[in-house]
Amino acid sequence: MPATDLANPLTQTAVRVAVEPAHIMLNSLVLINRREKMPGVHEWVERTAVSLTSEQRHTNMLVMEGFFHAVAPHRSWSGFPAYLDYMEQEDPVVLRQRLFDAYEQMGSSLEKTGQPFNMETTLATVGSYLDYLYARFPENHVHVQIETEAYHLLQNPPEMQAVLVGHLRQMWYLALQEEWERTRPLLQSSAQAFSQLDFSDMTLLEAAQTIIGTDLPEWWQKYTDRASYTQFIFVPSPHIGPYVSSFATDTTIWLLFGARLPQGSMVDAPDLSRSELLVRLTALADDTRLRILQLLKEEGELCSQDVQQRLELSQSAGSRHMQQLGATGYVRERRVEGQKCYSLNEERIEDTLLALSRFLKG
Are both 242 and 295 inside the same structural domain? Predict the structure, then answer.
């Protein structure tokens, strides 16, 4: 990570915290698909997933995984229905092109194949479309069934648009609208509290860590080229729990974080304080994760394989537990010769105990 990207005070790059309904609701739909890989997200995610039919869950996977870059907002919106109205009125060919524009930014066709991007060639067959995706994503990130269905819709942009908008409207009325009304006051309280902070003398790194409340994930490194980004908008989410997610355009990054209050905030929002505390305590309310923390306390830094062997965990189980502990800040992660190694963050544990004390004692 180039030091110059994050070490200078924020002079030309705008940093703010804002409630962004379209980004928040779309991210919550993504969480429904990824809930098993992200332990610790809000219970609404699992509850909503269970309430959907298998067909609705499948369509959600198709829309939010196969067409994420077509439905991702490119600017702020006052409300989710307003964004859907825009999607419905947009030229469907433009929506399709938006998907491929995003894929080309991940690696141009000229760079990957020696040939410039050609829509007709890419969509000539299912195989050519899958090859196009394999050139940009790890093989295990390409869901063949979903992308095959996406391929057929890409052949017919009006039908594609109808499926995307139809599903998002259905999800708004089925699950999102009521939840938005319930959580909006909490999100507004979070944004209001952070709006009282002055970020002008902070570095980008300091501002981000102040807002998120934990160390930044590894993927933050791809956003450190501040020359191309003029806005960093931090968006409180009611459902993302301890994790961080993002939307991006050429000039703007929206970073979603678990809705919280900054340390020392004078904003009175007990429901928000309780919600943030619950995220932290949920990570501790598991015997295996407590054993991991105890092991790190006793032996110091250990790499993932060592933790799995000592506690007789499978690779997938160990990864899920470490992911949740890392996201909530209880362990620090670094790479040593290609391996992920972890150490106990005792400051975060002390901070959690103090937060619980403040919440219960006032």
Answer: no
Q: Across the beta sheet with 14-17, what order do the strands follow? A: 14-17, 231-237, 252-258, 245-248
Beta strand pairing call for 252-258 and 245-248: antiparallel
276 belongs to a structural domain: no
Q: What are 189's two structure tokens? A: 């309280």
Report the relative pairing of strands 339-344 and 245-248 from DSSP bridges. Answer: unpaired
Q: Is residue 250 located within the same domain as residue 332?
A: no
The CATH number that applies at residue 308 is 1.10.10.10
Is residue 21 assigned to a domain? yes
Gap between the Cα atoms of 297 and 228, Å rounded: 42
Listing DSSP states for 295-338 in one string gives HHHHH--EEHHHHHHHHT--HHHHHHHHHHHHHTTSEEEEEETT
Identify residue 215 by its one-letter amino acid code: D
Please provide the average confidence, as pLDDT, over all residues in the chain.
88
Predicted pLDDT at 222: 64
Over residues 98-132, the pLDDT tens digits come to: 999 999 988 888 788 778 899 999 999 999 999 99
Nearest to 303 by CA among 330, 344, 339: 339
In total, how many domains does the chain have? 2
CB atoms within 10 A of CB 246: 17
| pLDDT value at residue 273 | 74
Contacts 24+ apart (CB under 8 A), 337-342: 339/303, 339/304, 339/305, 340/303, 340/304, 341/301, 341/302, 341/303, 341/304, 342/296, 342/301, 342/302, 342/303, 342/304, 342/307
Q: What are 31-38's contacts with CB under 8 Å, separation 24+?
A: 31/239, 31/240, 32/57, 32/60, 32/64, 33/60, 33/61, 33/64, 33/65, 37/320, 37/323, 38/241, 38/243, 38/323
Range of the domain at 325: 286-361
The candidate with the shortest Cα–Cα distance to 334, out of 296, 311, 302, is 302
